[in-house]
Automatic annotation (TrEMBL):
Keywords: Hydrolase
GO MF annotation terms: hydrolase activity
UniProt-listed Gene3D superfamilies: alpha/beta hydrolase
Protein name, entry field: Alpha/beta fold hydrolase
Sequence ranges assigned to domain AB hydrolase-1 in this UniProt record: 27-255
PANTHER family (alphabetical): HYDROLASE, PUTATIVE (AFU_ORTHOLOGUE AFUA_2G14860)-RELATED (PTHR43798:SF33), MONOACYLGLYCEROL LIPASE (PTHR43798)
Keyword Iron assigned: no
InterPro entries noted in UniProt: AB_hydrolase_1, AB_hydrolase_fold, AB_hydrolase_sf, Epox_hydrolase-like
Species the sequence originates in: Gracilibacillus xinjiangensis
Amino acid sequence: MTNIRYKEHLICYDLHHSTEIKQPKYILLLHGFLASKYCFRNMIPSLTKHYHVITMDIPPFGESSKKKNNLYTYDHMVEAIISLLDHLEINQITLMGHSMGGQIALRCSCSHRERVDKLFLLAPCSFMHRSPIFARLVSYNPLAPYIVKKFLRNKGVYEILRQCLYNDQLITREMIEKYKEPFQDNAIFHSIMTWLKDHQGDLLEEQLNTINVPCTIFWGKEDLILPYQLGYDLLRCIKDAKLYLIDNVGHFLPEEIPSIITSAIFADSKA
């Protein structure tokens, strides 16, 4: 585990080197809202056969810094990623993003086209609008972080995972404890309210039209968080895109079908 500072953020990341590739190929994995780089753990052993793999905790999640006065816009996170690539002296990279991380990956390829050579999107946030004025006003309420804390504690990590996964039997005690860890720090609840205030909304159709890198999209047909039909809208907007729909899979694809995703990626690279 390594940290890098970008402006007000201390960002935690890991670099998993491949011992099997002859040339430097890198892939950066971006997790979703309330998750962390931990969610990709089952994909890393396979991915390192073809890539040097970078995972990072997108602030304020995982082990990255959690401060209520930090900036959490998508565009700010994109610039943090570019700063990390510059720090590691990586000119071009493949991006994989799940949910919120998928929207950030899309923004990277839109605003920094020369730095991204390929996209893999796992049920990416798409076509969502900016936080409504009411939600942004609520975020200024000094009691709001405590309300969020109470809601998450009452609902519990287990129930949140159940909503994200199609098969409850995939949930282990280790998963519950790992996903619970960041929420032991009360600072994250203040940061989540700031994130809500800063939320920009997703890329517009005309912005998606400018993305010209190969894009492979994976979506579970039983996704209760983001309906898989959004994948068809992305196909319409992104020139070089294809969509895989998987039966009996929910929203949390990195936890549910890691081997299916990595197999499809390797088949894609050989095509």
